[in-house]
Amino acid sequence: MTRPNTAPATDPWRAPVTVAQIPDTGLHRELEASAREREAIAAVAGLLGVLAAHASFDVTPRSGGRVHVAGRVQARVGQTCVVTLDPIENDIDEEVDLMFAPEEEARKLADLIEEGQDSEEAPDVAEPPEAIVNGVIDLGRIATDALYLAIDPYPRKPDAVFQPEVVAPDPDDHPFAVLKALQDKPKGK
Q: Between the CA of residue 10 and those of 66, 84, 123, what are the distances in Å?
């Protein structure tokens, strides 16, 4: 899945890093989402709330203008149990390992990979690098995307068990009940 690295005004968590300012030795960033950012993340994701959101990234320059971003996103989110409809909290701990490349190179590599996957004998290949847009990589957006992808779509309390309502079948409620009624009807002459 390729996510554009553009940052519309609706991105709830922003932490841009200018690629030209990354030292040769790389850099380390610790991010903590503010209350307002957590509220916006929850609204976009349809969560009851985001109680905490933290990201830790190592950003390392590579040859050819590429940049490697590796780290971890941790969060605590409020959701609704799909069985009991009670509010619950879930922990998220997601690893991030992405390669970024200049926009033109990323686009070319994505096209080459797509062409290779069209042929029958092509083995599965790695994902193309993400694009560096306008010389910036947004670590907040990376953290938010990782958080969104890690959310449990069907959260359930540990002890919640779905118990379907058991109703005794009505003997007159089956597909052939109408035929039986016709059979039991006295025949008129």
A: 27, 32, 38
β-pairing, 87-102 with 130-132?
parallel
CB distance 53 to 143 below 8 Å: yes
Q: Quick: pLDDT tens for 49-99.
A: 999 999 999 999 999 899 999 999 999 999 999 999 999 999 999 999 999
> pTM (2 decimals)?
0.74
Residue 54's contacts (CB-CB under 8 Å, 6 or more residues apart) are 30, 31, 32, 33, 73, 74, 75
DSSP label at residue 166? P
Q: Hunting for tokens 């932490």 — which residue is that?
A: 15
Contact 75, 147 (CB under 8 A): yes
Residue 74: alpha-carbon gap to chain centroid: 14
pLDDT in tens, 139-183: 999 999 999 999 999 999 988 777 777 776 776 677 776 777 677
Question: What strands, in cross-sheet order, belong to the sheet with 49-61?
Answer: 27-32, 49-61, 67-80, 87-102, 130-132
Rounded CA separation 72/43 (Å) = 22
